[in-house]
Amino acid sequence: MAKTFDQLEPRAALAEIAREFYQRGWMPGTAGNLSARVEVSVEPGFWITASGMPKGQLDATDFLLVSVRDDAVIERLRPTHKPSAETSIHRAIYRTFPQARACLHVHSVDACVSASRVPPGMTTLRLPPLEVLKGFGLWEENPQIDLPVFENWLDVPRIARDIEQRFAATPPRIDALVIRDHGITVWGETLQQAFNRVEVVEFIMTYIGRL
């Protein structure tokens, strides 16, 4: 019987997810980053992909254990590895949503095209009421769901601050967001749930892109 990602060691699961997303064209080259929150004796932390690594070739040593509280690296498996440039976004998600155990960020053409249709100044993208939204637990007729849209600042910690501030005031109805000209970030209570939700959001982005 095939294992779910939750039955694998977190780093092994993340490496396998990265290969899957790479093959789908959602993590071209070194783009994107994946993380999984773990309980460690020192302090709350999460494993995240090392910066600049080809996502179709990761193994279990290509991750760093980073603190949820600050920028501290708790464990580094290779001395030359540095945390992903977008670590602060993952930290913002884990601090804002304590129930989140996985955070997956991918770069797809469809997400960029769909977000580009949001007029300047608008901060949400209304999603079509597609059946696949049930993947987020939305069991209602004609759900009216707005996907949060964030600006793609060169200063990544600024994006993270925007996420924390907005979600502290207004939590999103689904555990996902999109950054203009960049890609989607999705989180879940398990790795498998987060993986499934990336598939859901990318399905919707493809649908919007074909309208």
What can you see in these coordinates?
With 211 residues, this protein is α+β, with helices and mostly antiparallel strands. The chain has one domain (5-209): L-fuculose-1-phosphate Aldolase (3-Layer(aba) Sandwich). 31% of the residues lie in helices and 21% in strands. It has 5 helices and 9 strands, in the order αββββαβαββαββα. It has helices spanning 10-23, 87-96, 109-116, 156-169, 191-209, and strands at residues 33-38, 45-49, 63-67, 73-76, 102-106, 124-127, 145-150, 176-179, 183-188. Strands 4-3-2-1-5-9-8-7-6 form a 9-stranded mixed β-sheet, sandwiched between helices. The chain is globular and about 50 Å long. The mean pLDDT is 95.
The share of residues in extended strands comes to: 15-25%
Q: State the total count of DSSP E strands.
A: 9
User: In CATH's first tier, which class applies?
Assistant: Alpha Beta
Question: How many helical stretches?
Answer: 5
The main sheet comes to: 9 strands, mixed
Strand order of the largest sheet: 4-3-2-1-5-9-8-7-6
- CATH homologous superfamily identity: Class II aldolase/adducin N-terminal domain
The domain tally reads 1
Mean pLDDT: 95
Shape: globular
Contiguous low-pLDDT stretches (5 residues minimum) are none
* CATH level-two architecture: 3-Layer(aba) Sandwich
Helical content stands at 25-40%
Q: What Rg do the Cα atoms give? A: 16 Å
**Element-by-element helix/strand order:** HEEEEHEHEEHEEH
Query: Which structural class is indicated by helix and strand composition?
Result: alpha+beta
Task: Determine the CATH topology.
Answer: L-fuculose-1-phosphate Aldolase
* Distance, first to last CA: 39 Å
